[in-house]
Each structure stands twice: as structure tokens, then as C-alpha cells.
Design brief:
Layout (H helix, E strand, L loop, with lengths): L4 E6 L5 H7 L6 H10 L3 E9 L2 E8 L5 H13 L11 E4 L1 H12 L10 H15 L5 H20 L9 H12 L7 E5 L3 H10 L6 E6 L2 H11 L2 E4 L3 H5 L4 E4 L10 H8 L5 E5 L16 E4 L1 H7 L1 H5 L2 H49 L9 H25 L5 H14 L21
Parallel strand pairs: 5-6, 5-8, 6-7, 8-9, 9-10
Antiparallel strand pairs: 1-3, 1-4, 2-3
Helix pairs in contact: 2-3, 4-6, 4-14, 5-6, 6-14, 7-8, 8-9, 14-15
């Protein structure tokens, strides 16, 4: 199998300050994928950036140590020398890279063990790479299988029982400060996926007030209706915080939206507030945690609190670990089979292409007034149509079985492929043809 590698950092290896500095906004992903391919360091690339991780899955280009090539690509994308990250980053290749992705999909590498949102995040990362034409058939197969493994893990084990998201963990934290939320006044900052999950957990708590604050008021209104709250624009945040008992922030912003100065101005120093920041970068200024009556939880603080939750899932961990190992074996077998079939498929398509060129050339005089280029395109289309079904059937054969090997031998004999000069073997992680 040609090299498959992953470079990244997560909540286990890198502090929040570093993760928020290197986080990749979703809108920047297409440009970064294009930049990665044009750098010449990789031939395929997928970027996964969430509140707890920044990862680049790639097929390193060229010869030499794949680790060196991936480090070079990561430096280009992150704008920092990858080696400077030290132990905050990890780099896995081949089997270890596949296992890592499958563990991520199962929620084993999440802050909330077994959390479900990571599957949607992986699906979005895969879709972005497909739209940018930065992946080929192997990475397509890899990410499809990762999503399948993640679903199996949750269906066949209790890995996703209990707390299943950061948002549910945030509400759990509120329960530690407020035995009952009845009559409390809360602020939900943001209206994205994480905020929607938090709102669903708060909807039936009989709050006195839930203010949903967002830069886009329409999205806040849509969320507030379902949660039994009210929607407010971002410029009303300071005012609504004046009477709040708790704040859950789950949004994206280039600067801190909640500062100590604002809270002192609206609330003074004596009123208690529980503030939970699920955002990366953080939107609650860390200095807020220095206020005597305010308790702030960022993602690292949640990580420490959830350690006990993770330690109670030993049985589920064993089941999912075994599943990941089995599915990794399955994917690597597929890669080996593909590598064995690729030379045969390359010879077959090269043989048919040579026949097409020869027949077109010999019969040029019989084509009358047809422009040569059009005649050649017609012949190419005809050959492609004739080969479509046979090639798909050949790819479905298992070369490790007696029947599969016999079928492949019949193909070689029928077309005389062993007699042809072998064309260049298709690289398992071949670069895609890209149009300008």
C-alpha cells in the first residue's frame, strides 16, 4: 500500500491556546486544500478541523520519507513549522493512520467519549475534499468506511450512552452548580449545531428565561422557537447578561465577545455566573475566570471534568477497539487487492487504447470528411463504453481466492496482456487530473 498519513493535534496533545490559534475556519478549507495540492507535497488531502482537533489526512507525493513530506505540507497549511509543535502534534502513517481515523469516527478520540457530532464533522470534511477534487478512490473508500465504522461502534456497544456531546456535557456541568434549573435565567450564544443541541437539552428545564443571541437574528429566532426562548441580536448580549445565571457560548468569532470589563459594568462583582465556552477560538475572555463570582469552563476544563465519565466505559472501549482493529484489517486487504488489480487494469486499458489508435489510423481514409479529432473522440467514447462493465466486474473480483485468480488469468489470456509491454502501473494514491 502506498503511504497514507495523518498529521494533527487534539485536546489530548495540545493546549486550547494552540488549538484555537491553528483552527481552520470552514470557509477557508477549499482554498487550503487547493494550496496543499499545489504545494507538490501531497497528492490527496482531507482537512478535519473541529473544536477539539486539527488534522490533515494526506497521501504524500514523491519519493523519500512520507513523514518528511507530510510535515512539509502541514507547515504550508498551518503557517508554522510543524516540527516546532513538538509533542503537541502527532504523525501516523499507513496502518496507524487508518486506525486513528477509525478511532476518531467511533468517538474514542473525542473529549466526550462516543460523542455523535464527530460523524457529521467527518462527513463535512469528506464532502469538502470531494468538492475540491482533492481526493481519489482510495480516500473515498477510506472515509466511507470510517463513517460506517463509527455507526457500527454506536450500534454494537454502549460507547455513546450517557453524555453524547459537548453540549450535553455543558448542561451536565450546569447541573453541578444548580440542582434545579427551574426559574433560572440563561443565555445561549450562537445558533449553530452545538447551540442547537444545547438548546434541546435546555428546552424542558422550565427556565424563567432563555435568551438566544446570535449575529444573524433569523437563525436565533428559529432556534429560540423550538427551545421556548427569545431571540436577540449580538449587540444585546451585554444587556441580557446583566440578569443571567448562566451562559453557554457555542459560536465562531475572531475576538472575545464576553469580557470582564463588560460583565463588571453590567453585573458588578458580586453576582454569581456560570459561563461555559464551547467555542474554538474562545469567545469568553479567559480573564473573566478571574472574577470572584464567575466560574468559567473552557474545553480543557470540561476535559478534566469528564475524565471520570470516560473511565467508567471500559467494557465498551474493549468492544470498539476490537471493531477498529477488524475494520482496519478489512481496509488494508482492500488496498492490497486494489494494488494487485491495478497493473492488470492498466495493461487492459493500455492494450485497448493502442488498438483504438491503430484501427483509427488504418481506417482514416474510410472516414471521409470527418475531422480526425472528432473521429478519435468517438472511438475513445466507444472503447470506454465497451470497457465500463468489464472493468467494474474485474474490480469486484478477489485475487486472494482461487476463483478470482482464475478469472484474472482468463482475462490476461483472452487479451494477450502478458505479451504486451507493461505500461506504467497505476499508483494506488495517484494524483487526480485537475483542470485550471
Amino acid at each position: 500500500m502506498n503511504e497514507l498519513a495523518v498529521f494533527g493535534m487534539n485536546h489530548r496533545t495540545a493546549p486550547l491556546e494552540l488549538r484555537e490559534r491553528l483552527a481552520v475556519p470552514q470557509n477557508d478549507v477549499p482554498a487550503l486544500l487547493d494550496k496543499a495540492l499545489k504545494s507538490g507535497h501531497v497528492t490527496e488531502c482531507v482537512i478535519v478541523s473541529t473544536c477539539n482537533r486539527v488534522e490533515m489526512y494526506a497521501a504524500p507525493a514523491g519519493d523519500g520519507d512520507p513523514r518528511e513530506r507530510l510535515l512539509a505540507a502541514a507547515s504550508v497549511l498551518l503557517g508554522v513549522e510543524a516540527r516546532e509543535l513538538g509533542t503537541a502534534a502527532y504523525l501516523h502513517v499507513e496502518r496507524a493512520a487508518v486506525e486513528h481515523l477509525f478511532r476518531v469516527a467511533c468517538g474514542l478520540d473525542s473529549l466526550v467519549l462516543g460523542e455523535t457530532q464527530i460523524l457529521a464533522q467527518l462527513r463535512d470534511a469528506f464532502a469538502a475534499a470531494a468538492a475540491a477534487a482533492s481526493i481519489g478512490p482510495v480516500f473515498t473508500r477510506l472515509f466511507h468506511q470510517a463513517l460506517h465504522v463509527g455507526k457500527r461502534a454506536r450500534a454494537e456497544s454502549s460507547i455513546a450512552s450517557g453524555l453524547t456531546s459537548l453540549a450535553s456535557a455543558a448542561v451536565h456541568v450546569l447541573g453541578r452548580h444548580f440542582p434545579r434549573l427551574d426559574g433560572r435565567r440563561g443565555v445561549l450564544l450562537g445558533a449553530g449545531t452545538m447551540a442547537r443541541i444545547a438548546a434541546a437539552h435546555l428546552a424542558d428545564r422550565e427556565l424563567a428565561d432563555l435568551a438566544v443571541v446570535n449575529r444573524t437574528l433569523d437563525r436565533a429566532e428559529a432556534l429560540a422557537v423550538g427551545a421556548g426562548g427569545r431571540a436577540l441580536p449580538l449587540d444585546a448580549l451585554a444587556d441580557v447578561l446583566a440578569d443571567a445565571d448562566f451562559l453557554v457560548a457555542a459560536c465562531a468569532a475572531p475576538t472575545h465577545l464576553v469580557t470582564a470589563a463588560t460583565l463588571r459594568d453590567r453585573r458588578g462583582d458580586a453576582r454569581a455566573l456560570v459561563a461555559i465556552d464551547l467555542s474554538v477560538p474562545r469567545v469568553i475572555d479567559p480573564a473573566v475566570g478571574g472574577m470572584a463570582a464567575v466560574t468559567v469552563y473552557d474545553l480543557d476544563a470540561l476535559d478534566r471534568m469528564l475524565e471520570a465519565h470516560r473511565s467508567r466505559r471500559v467494557e465498551a472501549l474493549g468492544i470498539v477497539d476490537a471493531l477498529v482493529a477488524s475494520e482496519t484489517d478489512s481496509f488494508l486487504r482492500w488496498c492490497c487487492e486494489r494494488a494487485e488489480l491495478s497493473p492488470l487494469l492498466a495493461r487492459l486499458t493500455s492494450h485497448c487504447d493502442a488498438v483504438r489508435r491503430e484501427v483509427t489510423k488504418r481506417n482514416a481514409k474510410f472516414l471521409g470528411g470527418i475531422e480526425p479529432g472528432r473521429a478519435d473522440r468517438f472511438a475513445q467514447s466507444l472503447v470506454a463504453k465497451l470497457l465500463d462493465h468489464p472493468l467494474r466486474r474485474i474490480r469486484s473480483w478477489d485475487p486472494d481466492t482461487v476463483e478470482g485468480r482464475h478469472r484474472l488469468e482468463v482475462v490476461r489470456e483472452l487479451f494477450g496482456l502478458d505479451e504486451d509491454a507493461a505500461p506504467a502501473t497505476e499508483d494506488v494514491f495517484r494524483p487526480l487530473s485537475r483542470t485550471a
